């Protein structure tokens, strides 16, 4: 169990006392597809929704931090639209030059310099007496070292994400903000790829991945708060493992994958903190399962069509302006189209007049 205030599964033991009985909002993970949530929040703000608590995973943790700091949905919508309106591949996918450099050194730099023939001769001497299997094993070990480095440190740095978070979620506003939970996936063997293999097994129908832990951000020391938010957004291999205190974590969406418990973290809000919860999904036909024993009423809002990339990049990494603008607009239209349903779910007491 982590050394800071986090809990496994849907149980939560908080250090701060927050009002209960209001409306919570849950923001799912999905990388670049999180632009849909910005449009959805804008529509909810126009409907007049009031929220009292927030929970998010991965990009939903980043969006959720902005909602928390803004406190009011109209202000949150303004910030999210500005943030996503200024995002591009270069601002998010900042190459981790140290990791890439180390990988190149591991793969291509020989111990001794010289001309090509000399290097080949030296390599031949080194491999003399080795069976083909031994030579192949050495090459495989080198490849594992490279993959381990990318798994631990990521192909891209989180500095771009940190800059966006600092701009739209100031520390003092997050301190006074709505209670914010983020899901985290414990990484007991950083760099070895164990957590990634565990997720892959769950995706292919084998044993489910371990449960996530949920951290109440305002209960953490100041220096750990944004680290927890960023750790929740560390997509495997894309970004490195996140460190919160002495613990290492990966993308919170990896937890309990089969039922999306980590990727759509309603658990912390569902068992007493909120009377009703608006759940924002980034998948159509999601296999998400509501928390067992949930006491809160829930309204699920999802994209009307799958959020597909407009190019060669996977949708979760498609930070092109064309795709982000399209998904933001779709989020706004999808939620606006369900205005009457949202108003009925909230009731007059949970909407602005």
The residue-averaged pLDDT reads 82
Give the overall shape, derived from the CA principal axes.
globular
Number of helices: 14
Instruction: Look at the helices and sheets and give the structural class.
Output: alpha/beta
Helix % is 40-55%
DSSP strand tally = 11
Order of helices and strands: EEHEHHHEHHHEHHEHEHEEHEEHH
Q: Can you summarize the main beta sheet? A: 9 strands, mixed
Rg, nearest Å: 22 Å
Residue share in β-strands? 5-15%
Low-confidence stretches: 1-5, 7-16, 110-115
Q: How far apart, in Å, are the first and last alpha carbons?
A: 44 Å
Task: Give a written overview of the molecule.
Helices cover 43% and strands 14% of the residues. It is an alpha/beta fold. Strands 1, 2, 3, 6, 7, 8, 9, 10 and 11 form a nine-stranded mixed β-sheet that branches. A two-stranded antiparallel sheet has the order 4-5. The longest helix has 22 residues, at 132-153.
Describe what is shown at a glance.
This protein is α/β, with parallel strands linked by helices and 353 residues long.
